[in-house]
Amino acid sequence: MDFVLDYISVNTFWTILSTTHALLAVALLGALTHQAAAVLAPPRAGATGGFVTHFRSVSGPRYAAAVCVLWVLVFIFGAWIYTRYRFHVRVLIEQEALFKTLGAFEVKEHIATIGLGLLPVYWHFWKNARNAAYDSARKWLTVVLAAICWYAFLAGHIVNNVRGFGL
Amino acid sequence: MSADTGTAKATSSRFGTFALVFGICFGILYVISDMASLPMFTYHPGPDRIDPGFAPPRRDEGPAMYWYGWIATSALGASMLGLLAAALPEKIRGKIPLALAWITPVALLPVLIYSLKFYWRWE
Lengths: 167, 123
Hints:
The structure holds 2 protein chains of 2 kinds.
Chain A: H1 10-40, H2 51-55, H3 60-95, H4 99-127, H5 135-163
Chain B: H1 2-35, E1 41-44, E2 49-52, H2 67-86, H3 90-93, H4 100-115, H5 117-121
């Protein structure tokens, strides 16, 4: 990737990666939130409600593959910029003694990784969406993944606010 | 036709068992790898070097990163256990509770938070 640095600065390069990571995370967050709403509070048959009814009326199985792909992509970008974070961001946050911020980010790193390992079974549950035996596990696994995604998004946002762009 | 359907069903079931056991074991092994310092390798971002297993940071080389190594350790272990589980007879495979897929990460969360107590004590 060094040839890219002939055209843009190092800071611009890492900022592009960080922004891409954030934008993909927004897409993942939206998909998982819709899906979790659909399994937690499915609309009644024939309901013609407003925004909330439409928000939870998505077809869960249609989101499953996109969620898996987005989670992997967000993870890859996160793992890529993590080296930069470890070397250039975390040290500065340590020097400022913002240990709870660091701890919150460590939790994000751990639960996002555990979520990655759950993607195969999540995909399997949704691929067999008509199998009633999977209903409960599929519902709660989707909710857990949505909660992980929300936490990871907010923790990442906080760290970004502490250190900001131009890593 | 029926034989094809049966094979597809069996494959799906074996994959389902693999995926379930992989998901459960991946999280557990990840937490163990973290708490017991068992990364498959250590990455040193300063000199861009990889050492096998756990390697402490060296003077003037910056921090050492174990996260990638923890993922590798847990992925390898969970894959092996998932494959073993998938090879079990259907009678046994069918007894693995599906709910463990979401209960395991919820149960691991307090353990993870405790493992990071260093960050909660200092200010």
